[in-house]
């Protein structure tokens, strides 16, 4: 007894699994590009300035958060050791600009104290981080 031959079905491409893979890849690339932004300082709320200009040179970022905590390139630092650590970083790159990234709510006197400490370094180039309104 012979079984009847089944007709050959044409090959089919199922789109549902392919769409799932494409969306998974798209999600991966979107999330990975969010982490490509370069941020050297601590997250602070910067003051706004209409005349702000961006700097394209190497930067050393000194951050002051709302509570007055001090950080050098995201690492906590004490005020009395700040100038020595900045000097060490500047010895590797003399063209670097030291950017003060201070929260707009931090005490003005604290910012001046940090600037005064940094100005003891000869030939230092200082900048203050702001946002455009």
Q: Determine the N-to-C terminus distance.
A: 86 Å
What percentage of amino acids are in beta strands?
Answer: 15-25%
Please count the beta strands (DSSP E, at least 2 residues each). Answer: 5
Low-pLDDT windows of residues:
none
Mean pLDDT: 82
Q: What is the molecular shape? A: elongated
Structural class: alpha/beta
The name of the CATH topology of the domain at 59-128 is: Nucleotidyltransferase, domain 5
- What letter string, H or E per element, gives the SSE order? HEEEHEHE
CATH architectural group of the domain at 59-128: 2-Layer Sandwich
- Helix percentage range: 25-40%
Q: Total number of helical segments?
A: 3
Give the biggest beta sheet.
Answer: 5 strands, mixed
Q: What is the spatial order of strands in the main beta sheet? A: 3-2-1-4-5
Computed Rg: 27 Å
CATH class descriptor of the domain at 59-128 = Alpha Beta
Please, what is the oligomeric state? single chain
What does this structure look like?
There is one protein chain. With 133 residues, this protein is an alpha/beta fold. The protein has a domain at 59-128: Nucleotidyltransferase, domain 5 (2-Layer Sandwich). Helix content is 34%, strand content 15%. The chain contains three helices and five strands, in the order αβββαβαβ. It has helices at 15-34, 79-92, 108-118; strands at residues 59-64, 70-72, 75-76, 97-102, 126-128. Strands 3-2-1-4-5 form a five-stranded mixed sheet, covered by helices on one side. Strand 4 (97-102), helix 3 (108-118) and strand 5 form a beta-alpha-beta unit. 12% of the residues are buried. The model has no long low-confidence stretch (mean pLDDT 82).
């Amino acid at each position: 007894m012979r079984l009847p031959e089944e007709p050959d079905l044409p090959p089919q491409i199922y789109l549902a699994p392919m769409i799932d893979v494409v969306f998974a890849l798209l999600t991966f690339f979107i999330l990975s590009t969010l982490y490509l932004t370069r941020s050297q300082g601590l997250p602070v709320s910067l003051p706004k300035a209409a005349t702000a200009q961006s700097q394209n040179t190497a930067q050393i970022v000194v951050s002051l958060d709302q509570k007055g905590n001090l950080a050098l390139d995201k690492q906590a630092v004490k005020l009395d050791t700040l100038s020595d650590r900045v000097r060490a970083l500047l010895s590797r790159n003399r063209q670097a600009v030291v950017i003060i990234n201070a929260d707009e709510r931090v005490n003005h006197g604290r910012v001046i104290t940090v600037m005064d400490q940094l100005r003891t370094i000869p030939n230092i180039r200082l900048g203050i981080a702001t946002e455009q309104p």
